[in-house]
Amino acid sequence: MTDLFAHAMQERLQHEGPLAARMRPRTIDEFVGQEHVMGPGRLLRRAIQADQLSSLIFYGPPGTGKTTLAMVIANTTRSRFVTLNAVLAGVKDIRQVTADAQEQRRLYNQRTILFIDEVHRWNKAQQDALLPWVENGTIIMIGATTENPWFSVNRALLSRSRVFQLVPLTSEDLYTIARAALADPERGYGRLQVEVHPDALDHLVDVANGDARSLLNALELAVETTPPDERGIIVVDMAVAEESIQQRAVLYDQEGDYHFDTISAFIKSVRGSDPDAALYWLAKMVYAGEDPRFIFRRMLILAGEDVGLADPHALVVVEAAAAAFERVGLPEGRFHLAQAALYLATAPKSNSTMAFFDALDAVSSERDSAVPTHLKDASRDQEGFGHGEGYLYPHAYRDHWVAQQYLPDALQGKVFYQPSDQGYERTIRERVARRREEQLAAMTEEGAGQGEVLTFSPTGRARDRWLMRAISDTGRHLGDVRDRLFAEAQVPRHALILDLHAGSGLLTWEALRRAPEGGVFALARDATAATALREQAERLPEIERPQVLQGDPLDLPALLAEHGSGEVRFDLVVGRNALTQHPDKAKALRIVAALLRPGGAIRLAEAVPRHAQRLYDLVDLAPLDAAVAEALRAAEEAIYADAQDPMTNWGLEDLRHALEAAGLGDVAIEATTMTREIPVTPDLIARWFDASTSDRPSYGQCLSRSLDPAALAAVRALYARQLTGQTVTWRSEVAFVVARREG
């Protein structure tokens, strides 16, 4: 009976609750926004669809979908789903949930997912009470928080959870949500005749500022409080919209990330001498209700740290503005905030006062240095120990200065203060430098000592060890190629990456390591390579494995559709020799470019066979007949000049034209000569000269087109005699390619 009443209450809330609650998405397909974690192919989406969730923390501002994602999971999972609000629940509730979870697991072998809203509200003891049950798998925790989890969530709990940061929704996302609410006949206003003027909708979306809840609340107020006109239509015009949502909700808090991030942006803008940015961030803090005394405190620090002696008046101006604010108060005191900020932003900059911290470091790290005798207090020990003896009184000299030792012996010549060339400090720079030189010269003449011149998914140790072993199990040459491809890629952890020529997994495993919350697709050319990759990946949890496709780059759209990933668009495509032998490089690049999201990048390392190592350069041809030697050179060069061979009939400019024709921009191609050491064995000689088992002829078969059998036998004998057992330096040219999809 209780369940019936509870169900009835839930049904009533779904029909009578606020619009924002009624319109909450129920499935993945209804969810709008957060493409970086919920887009096709991303790890979180795959985990929800496969019902293979681990503990999660959703972190982001209000109205971005944290609770909604939890509800989508609740509607999708086969696990038992329980919710708690950290404001209302305590240790007793946790114990009850864990006891029920154990019973459910024992009786029905069913997991329990516990959703904790506002998880940051729990103290350390409450979070610790949950930890053992998360650790042993009794509970799968999903936490939602507006506070930075790295500061608000227990580190032990955090280390066992994946963290997904949600961001404010885009304007397009908000338009989609508003139109869905107006069209839905059951949960929204589809049964009513509602006409929302375009400018009114624009206003609602703009002022909502990325917050779906704020938008829907405003839309609800506008529709519910506006009577129908004579035609029976509820008209929401600009006047109604402005009444419904009058003030933009600014993301800000007094103790959390927005507070610290905004003041950081303000300080960095002032330090960077950008008065416009300084005023913007100052206005955002004032608008959000930040304490002006806090802002003045930070400006007083900046006046000493970043302006310093470049403008000694900066400190005076800020101090005066702060005092004026105390007398005037708000709102007029905002003039003094702005004046101080503008003075600092436009003042010359010097951080030479940081010299104090260098001196502090020296004090903390050096051995105890005695005060030089002439600097010691003469009033107590002059007679007995000669303290103060030899001190030169500066005012007795011209310009009130005289060269003498002031630093301890061990620090003679040590420089802490470096005057800048900005503002007032420029006027003292030369004087300080000249006096230092004189000081040092005087100390040298007196025989004084020269002195000293003195970077989230949780860490999975087994997974990380396996990945590191997989990516390091390669030669230096291949490792250099891999590292260079990824060196400047700046791969987000949630990126979708395609390895265009997976082969042994050289790039696949590195991509997987760099994008643990995204997704990696690996294109293998044949069944053998695909099977090998899948077998290697079996050591990883199923949801974390790369999606292995088998085929040609031309087949990618069909392969992705067959895999159920036809909507996937990649942030990054990487490949090693993905195009080197491809017969239609231009078409392959057009297809790959279409699979990149706007702004997505392609990074390739393509060997250029046309400039590959020539075997005849590895040996001394003198023992050969001159005619045979010349024929050998010509025959080998002909291999690399075959206009019909897709492996050798292209160069860097051909590759550039193909990239640009595919609609890719910012094309950069850098040819690099790479070398590696290769031991020459009898088997390698045999592979060079014996008939090939692949589609391509062997080196010896190519030479046989120009050399008779006797000459070919002489060449083979020469190579075997001079190279067998030797380690040769093999030179190759690799084109490193970077391009982006425009738009």
Which fold name is given in CATH as the topology of the largest domain? Rossmann fold
* Global structural class: alpha/beta
Show unreliable segments.
1-7, 444-456, 468-474
User: Which architecture name of the largest domain does CATH use?
Assistant: 3-Layer(aba) Sandwich
Total beta-strand segments:
14
How many structurally independent domains?
Answer: 5
In DSSP terms (H or I, runs of 4 or more residues), the helix count works out at: 32
Strand content: 5-15%
- Per CATH, the superfamily of the largest domain is Vaccinia Virus protein VP39
Outline the biggest β-sheet.
7 strands, mixed
Strand order, main sheet: write it out.
Answer: 10-9-8-11-12-14-13
SSE topology:
Elements: H1 2-16, H2 19-22, H3 35-38, H4 43-50, E1 56-59, H5 66-76, E2 80-85, H6 91-108, E3 112-117, H7 124-135, E4 139-145, H8 149-152, H9 155-158, E5 162-165, H10 171-183, E6 194-196, H11 198-208, H12 212-224, E7 234-236, H13 238-244, H14 257-271, H15 275-287, H16 292-307, H17 313-328, H18 334-346, H19 355-365, H20 378-385, H21 423-445, H22 461-472, H23 476-487, E8 496-499, H24 506-514, E9 519-524, H25 527-537, E10 547-550, H26 556-562, E11 570-576, H27 585-594, E12 596-607, H28 626-639, H29 652-661, E13 664-679, H30 682-689, H31 699-703, H32 709-723, E14 727-741
Parallel strand pairs: 1-4, 1-5, 2-3, 3-4, 6-7, 8-9, 8-11, 9-10, 11-12
Antiparallel strand pairs: 12-14, 13-14
Helix pairs in contact: 6-7, 10-11, 10-12, 11-12, 11-13, 12-13, 14-15, 15-18, 16-17, 16-18, 17-18, 22-24, 23-24, 27-29
